[in-house]
Amino acid sequence: MRNLILFLACFSLIPLSMSCSSPAAPEESSTPGGRTVAWFNGLGYTVDLYFMDHDSLVRNAYLTGEVPSDILSPEKNLVAVLSSFDSRIRVFDVNRTGSESFHVNLPSGGNPYQMCLDNDGHAWVTLLLSSQVARAELTEGGDVTLFDVDPNPTSIASDGNLIFVGHGNWPDTTVSGGVSVRNSKTGEEIAWIETPDNVCFMKYFPATGKIHAVTTTYSNDGAVTVIDPNSFNAVGTVRTGGSPGAPIKTGSGFIAGDGWSSGKLFFYDESGKVSSWNSGHASATGLAAIGDTLFVTDFKGNMVFTVLLPEMIILDTLQSGTKGPQGITVVPR
Predict the structure, then answer these.
(1) CA within 13 Å, CB half, 331
(2) What is the CATH number of the domain that holds 114?
(3) Which end of the chain is less enclosed by CB atoms within 10 A, N or C?
């Protein structure tokens, strides 16, 4: 029961902020240029923008819709936010705050969960409750194609050609986890890769040509399974402990935060070497990096803190516009 409660709380399967007042609609306004970071506030349904070259923070730049669950930048100047309860991908242009540029509707009731991009510019989305994945064209009124997959699709990654779907242990508790490999044209399952229980995040890293599948049951058993997308083999398992979130690559290695559990960061490489550093913050939920500056969302502390790499010196804290800063991404400009 404890694992289920944590799973629900951490991945926005229930509308945790229904009692929160809805923020006012943001004003239309132009923004500075330069290096930009965007994050969504999971309990406030907003997006904040930070313009690094101007040290300018724009709080509540956009409204996300109910229960945002993932964020990425599909192309220059754009940021896309997935909303679970609205079943919608909203796309915003960071050159201006205010209204969305366009949106793509997904099937209602599926609980859109996480997304990735393929080489053709499609967004792929896991639909946790309907055991499907959706391939969406990121254009106004873009076509959406659905594919049936194994139960509990939580996470997704693409190496540009194939689609890798991570599976968790809820809502179908007879499924313990693993990764299914699928043809991006037909959705046909090509292979199944065993992992530890409950895949929570997936990410493809072009620099090493490997996919990292993050697993945890929120009982200090966090691990990263390194997958070769060519052979469909798990070529290594990195035992981080804790409950790691989505990893990023920096320098010669990788970093994952300790999710909602603590402000700890895990540093690892694909050979299995692991070290950690405790930031002293309440949580380390999402990560993004620009050069040697690491941005970490602190979900519990309602802020984003920045860290100088590799010295691990905390540089600043950025107060979020609303509660629960969660997913974060760098927006190319």
Answers:
(1) 28
(2) 2.130.10.10
(3) N
